[in-house]
Write a structure and sequence with these properties.
Helices cover 44% and strands 9% of the residues. The chain has 17 helices and 11 strands. It has a 7-stranded mixed β-sheet with strand order 6-5-7-8-11-10-9, with helices on both faces. It is globular.
C-alpha cells in the first residue's frame, strides 16, 4: 500500500471536454507546454468583456452561474502569472466584488481567486475571502454540497469545490472551525466505494473525475486534522482511505486516458485538473508507471485549437481555464524530491507539504515537492535540485543505489538529510553512506560563520549544519536536528527558525532561488545517432 504524502490543491468549476483541434504531433517538452500556456492565456484574455467579466454559465433558474466562469478564468490567469494589479485582472476582481453569488462552484472558485490575489496585494480582498468562505463552511450540515448554499447535501462534484473554497480561505489566514474539517472528512469516508474510488452521487461504479475529487478532498482534511499524529517516529496511523484512493489511480490512470475506465462527469480538462490536485497533494510523480504530468500535458498540447482554446460541452472558457490550471500548477518548480528507501523514510508524511506551502507564501513563488525512488533512471531525479532524506533508523542502500545517488550529485544535485526523533542510528548510518559515496571528501561542521547561516535569514548557527563540499558547491548538507517534526506540525510561528533553516538550504543550493520548471533537467540525455564510420 502507498503511504501518505504531500501538499497542495485548490478549487475550480463545472466540467469540460474538447472540440477537435489540429494535432500537434510533438513529444512532451517544456517549450511546447510554454507555448500552449501562452496561447491559452491569450485566448482567455481575448474573451474578456469590457466590464472585466466573462459570460455566465447556464440559464437563469437552470444551474445558472453568474460569476463562476469569471472566477475560474481569473483564477487560471492569476496562476498563469498575470498580476492582480494588471488592469484586466483588477477589473475582473472588482466586477466579482460587485456581483453577489450563492452558487457552490462559483463561491469555491471565487475564494481561490481572492486567495491568490491577496498574496501580492497586501490582502486587499481578505474581507471578501472571509465572507464567502463563511458562506461555504456554515452552509453545509453534512459535509457535502449541492449547487447553492446553504444546502442540506448534494453531489461530490459540488462538494469538492465547496471544500476547496474553504481550504483556499484557510491558506489565506481565514480561521475555519475545526469541526468543519471533521464533518467534510466524514462525508468523503462515507461515500467511498470498496474499490477505493468515488461516484458523483455516492452509488454506482467508481469514476475517474470523482475519485480525483475524493482523494484531493481527503488530503485537505488530513492536513487540517491529523498533522499532530506524526510528532513521534514509528506512528502506525494512516488514513487507509487515501491509500485506497491512490491505489485506484495506480490501477486506472492510463485506462482513463485511453477510454477503458469511465471518466465520469466532465471531460478531459476537468479530469486533468483533478489529477493535478491529487498529484501535487500526494507528492507522487507516477500513478502506476505513468508520469501523470507528462502524459496529461502531452494530450493537452496536442488537443489545443489553433485559437489557443480547449473546447467541449461546457464551453471554451471553462475548458481552457481547467487546462491552463493543469499545465501551470503541475509545471511549477519542484524544490525537494523526498527519497523513498528501504527504511523509515516517511515518519512525517506531510513535512514537505507544509514546508513548501510556507516557502511558496513567504517567497511569493509556488514551489512543489514529490516522492521519488531509486528504481527510476537518474534523469528522473533531476526534477528537483535537492534530494531530501529523512529517518530515525540507519538507511540501507545497495551498491547500485549508491551509484545512482553519487551520479545524481555529480550531475549537479545536492543531498539534504535530517535526523528524526533523535535517532542515533540514522545519524551514524547516513554518515557511513556519505563516506561510501564520497570517500575523498569529509562531512564538516559548518559553524555559525558559514554562509548557509545568513544567505537569506539570520540563523546564528542554529540549527547546526554539516556539509560535504568539493570546494565549488555543496554535495551534501546534513543536520541532526529534527526539523521535519516542526514542518509536519505546521508550527509556522512558534518554530519559524526551522522553516527559515530550510529556506536557507534552498537559497544556498539554488544560488539564491534560481529554479527550473518541473520535468526539465540541466543534464542532457545521450544523443541518439548512427555513426557514419568507426
Amino acid at each position: 500500500m502507498r503511504t501518505i504524502a504531500v501538499i497542495l490543491a485548490a478549487g475550480c468549476l463545472l466540467a469540460a471536454s474538447s472540440t477537435p483541434a489540429p494535432a500537434q504531433q510533438q513529444a512532451f517538452s517544456d517549450e511546447a507546454v510554454e507555448k500552449a500556456i501562452e496561447r491559452g492565456v491569450k485566448f482567455l484574455l481575448s474573451q474578456q468583456r469590457e466590464n472585466g467579466s466573462w459570460p455566465p454559465f447556464g440559464e437563469p433558474g437552470q444551474n445558472y452561474h453568474a460569476s463562476g466562469p469569471t472566477a475560474l478564468a481569473t483564477y487560471a490567469l492569476l496562476e498563469s502569472g498575470i498580476s492582480p494589479q494588471d488592469e484586466r485582472m483588477a477589473k475582473a476582481l472588482d466586477w466579482m466584488a460587485q456581483t453577489p453569488e450563492n452558487m457552490t462552484y462559483s463561491l469555491g472558485l471565487r475564494c481561490s481567486a481572492w486567495q491568490i490575489a491577496n498574496v501580492t496585494t497586501r490582502k486587499k480582498y481578505y474581507k471578501l475571502l472571509a465572507k464567502e468562505a463563511r458562506m461555504l463552511y456554515s452552509g453545509t450540515k453534512s459535509g457535502s454540497y449541492s449547487y447553492s448554499v446553504p444546502t442540506g447535501g448534494g453531489d461530490n462534484s459540488n462538494s469538492q469545490y465547496g471544500l476547496l473554497g474553504v481550504w483556499a480561505a484557510a491558506r489565506g489566514d481565514v480561521e475555519v472551525p475545526k469541526q468543519y474539517w471533521q464533518l467534510v472528512l466524514s462525508h468523503w469516508l462515507r461515500c467511498q466505494n470498496p474499490d477505493g474510488g468515488w461516484t458523483y452521487s455516492g452509488s454506482g461504479e467508481s469514476t475517474a473525475t470523482m475519485t480525483a475529487a475524493g482523494v484531493a478532498s481527503l488530503f485537505v482534511c488530513f492536513d487540517n486534522i491529523f498533522a499532530a499524529k506524526f510528532a513521534e517516529c514509528g506512528s502506525d496511523f494512516r488514513l487507509s482511505a487515501i491509500d485506497k484512493g491512490l491505489e485506484w489511480f495506480d490501477r486506472n490512470f492510463l485506462g482513463t486516458l485511453t477510454g477503458k475506465v469511465p471518466m465520469g462527469i466532465g471531460g478531459l480538462d476537468y479530469y486533468l485538473y483533478g489529477v493535478e490536485r491529487v498529484g501535487l497533494a500526494s507528492g507522487y510523480k507516477y500513478f502506476g508507471k505513468a508520469d501523470w504530468y507528462k502524459l496529461g500535458a502531452t494530450q493537452l498540447v496536442r488537443s489545443q485549437s489553433a485559437q489557443g482554446a480547449w473546447g467541449g460541452g461546457y464551453g471554451s472558457i471553462v475548458n481552457t481555464s481547467f487546462a491552463l490550471l493543469f499545465l501551470v500548477r503541475g509545471r511549477n518548480p519542484v524544490l525537494f524530491n523526498k527519497l523513498e528507501y528501504e527504511g523509515d523514510w516517511n515518519n512525517r508524511p506531510r513535512d514537505l507539504a507544509s514546508l513548501t506551502g510556507w516557502l511558496s507564501q513567504t517567497f511569493e513563488i509556488t514551489v512543489n515537492w514529490q516522492i521519488v525512488n531509486l528504481r527510476v533512471p537518474i534523469r528522473e531525479l533531476h526534477d528537483a535540485p535537492i534530494l531530501y532524506i529523512a529517518g530515525s533508523k540507519a538507511p540501507t542502500f545497495t551498491d547500485e543505489q549508491l551509484e545512482k545517488l553519487r551520479e545524481y550529485v555529480w550531475q549537479g544535485g545536492t543531498l539534504f538529510s535530517c535526523r528524526e526523533c533523535g535517532g542515533r542510528e540514522f545519524g551514524t548510518g547516513i554518515r557511513e553512506v556519505y563516506k561510501k559515496l564520497f570517500p575523498q571528501y569529509e562531512l564538516v561542521d559548518c559553524g555559525p560563520e558559514h554562509e548557509i547561516n545568513d544567505v537569506y535569514f539570520q540563523l546564528k548557527g542554529r540549527p547546526k549544519f554539516s556539509m560535504i563540499s568539493n570546494g565549488i558547491r555543496p554535495l551534501v548538507i546534513h543536520t541532526d536536528e529534527d526539523l521535519p517534526m516542526e514542518w509536519q506540525l505546521q508550527r509556522y510561528a512558534t518554530k519559524r527558525r526551522e522553516f527559515e533553516a530550510a529556506a536557507n538550504v534552498f537559497m544556498y543550493v539554488t544560488d539564491r532561488g534560481t529554479l527550473r520548471r518541473r520535468a526539465t533537467s540541466l543534464w542532457p540525455e545521450a544523443p541518439e545517432f548512427t555513426a557514419a564510420r568507426t
